[in-house]
Amino acid sequence: MLNRQRVLLHIVLAHGGSMDRTKLMKLLFLLRQETSFAGRPSFYDFVPYRYGPFSFTAYRDLDALAEAGLLQPDRPQVPRRARSAVRQATSTLSPEDTQAIRTLLRQYGEGSTNQIKRSVYRRYPFFASRSEGRRGGDVRKKARPAVYTLGYEGLSVDRFFELLIRRGITTIADVRRQAASRKYGFSKSALVRIAEKLDFRYTHFPELGVPSQMRSDLQTDSDYAKLFAAYAERILPAAAEQLRLLAAEVASRPTVVVCFEADHRRCHRSKLADALAQQTGLPVRHLKEGADEGAEAHTHHR
Questions:
Q1: What whole-number distance in Å separates Cα of residue 206 and Cα of residue 90?
Q2: What's the pLDDT tens digit per position in 48-86?
Q3: Whether residues 160 and 270 fall in one domain
């Protein structure tokens, strides 16, 4: 069992063994924002959604814990028969973690779901920006025209979409040859499903990806240089029509070119972005985790 799942179970158990999902989601969010859990890459990330901050990963964990018999399938409630197992599982949490949860519940545990939700909306307006019933509706900003790229390596699917929403991206252009991943949320079917829920457009250009046989045994800078030279000389000319279609997409709406590698210098998307810049006349901006808006890597202006 993952530590974050133990934390989730401990919150429910310490709250009396039962809690509605919306309240649990807000408590997990506040734990992330206001305690020692802040900044932990292994804990839940959040994205603005219908009822404020939401974690698709946490919902997946709820389902997994329900399948294991540790929670009821319809709501976060620990069945009586499972309480001993849940107590044993959560007993391995560190003193720091249990103290953070205790402090959180002391401050927010007695509040109603609506009270906590209003407090979160007021103090964290970005995460309330797409909530149902909000005056003015979705206030998503729109990114400036550019060729944006992003690698999801090291990101949860929630953090991935949070970064895109913050920067005003509305379309994902997946340029993996095979849009498969063992990482939750990044296989094509899961990515499409989550993108639709968050009102993103998803497109896939497999012809602009790199065949797996060309990506084997890449170790040195020279290996990558040879790969990217072959990509520019062979694959891009053969996929001219797909390149044209992607260029039209990039020119018409805020689009991010997505692949796996966090470092664009080790990913074919850097060469693809250069080709898109040539066709569109737009600058290239490689988005990255931890970079403030406007501080991401800029390749060139045209």
A1: 44
A2: 998 899 999 999 999 999 999 999 988 899 999 999 999
A3: yes
Band of pLDDT at residue 288, cut at 50, 70 and 90: confident
Output the pLDDT for position 296: 55
Are residue 21 and residue 118 in the same domain, yes or no? Answer: yes
Chain CA centroid to CA 147, Å: 20
Of 77-81, 179-183, 246-250, 286-290, the one with minimum mean pLDDT is 286-290
Query: What range does the domain containing 25 cover?
Result: 3-128
Count structural domains, the chain. Answer: 2
Q: CA 72 → CA 24, 67, 145, 217, distances in Å?
A: 14, 9, 47, 47
